[in-house]
Design a protein that fits this description.
Layout lengths: L5 H8 L16 H12 L13
Length: 54
């Protein structure tokens, strides 16, 4: 399956109340993904993003 972006994937395959766990390497620029793609794509919805380490 080829996916253009994580936000597109989430819009197509998630529903209200889903918990989604995204694993990424420690050097990944998570802020770019969260603030640059996910939050703008879901700005009309209530979302909670929690980043934890170890």
């Amino acid at each position: 399956m080829e996916v253009g972006s994580l936000a597109e994937f989430l819009k197509k395959h998630s529903t209200l109340g889903d918990f989604i766990l995204v694993e990424y390497p420690s050097f990944y620029p998570l802020g770019d993904l969260v603030w640059g793609e996910i939050i703008p794509s879901f700005s009309s919805h209530d979302i909670l993003i929690d980043d934890f380490f170890g």
